[in-house]
User: What shape does this take?
Amino acid sequence: MNIKHIFDIAITTIRMKPPIILDNNKTKRKPEITNEIIEKLILHETFLRRSAYKNTSIKTGESFFDDSDMKSEYYLVVVYDQNLNMPLLSARYFFDKTLIEKSLKGDDNINHLQTDLSGKLNLNDFKEGEIFLADRLSGNVYNSTYRQNRNYIFSLFYAEILTYNKNRSLILMARKEKHDKLLKKYLRLNFNIIGSIIHKGKEHWIILTDLKKSIL
Assistant: This one.
């Protein structure tokens, strides 16, 4: 771990309003508070998300990148190198239960996998603001600062999520892979498997943790 880089690494959570459609039919993302630093961080997140998913086999449309699927407020979390002005890790999260339910139905609202959630998750058991879903996790995997400080960057990221959401429950979708290394990491962090879906053409585990009991 490069100690110098640690002191350069920072993290910010940005509260976002629903995006607006411009006259040219393009989508503009809107932070609740606008200033030069926030605008720069949103550009960081845009660059990182597009770079991270550019060469993946996950099926993506423009809404995957411009957040036009967001119909209520949501949040962007951005980890970045202040000295190099470089994004390192980002994600978004949201509390809209209608959108969470839609996300958990997977591609084209396929329902045959929803039986996996029976008895394990009922969104109606949660009040508004008690449960949220995080997605669009994007890492700057070819960046040397990211590679040298990956564990620290993720620790910072998880700590930020926990700081703002201590008494809530968090849903993630972890892509299925050989040996499921990613899933095993989440299970060590006190997540539980509650089902699986086809998301953007790929099989994903649906996992859940109660942040009141979490070891994030």
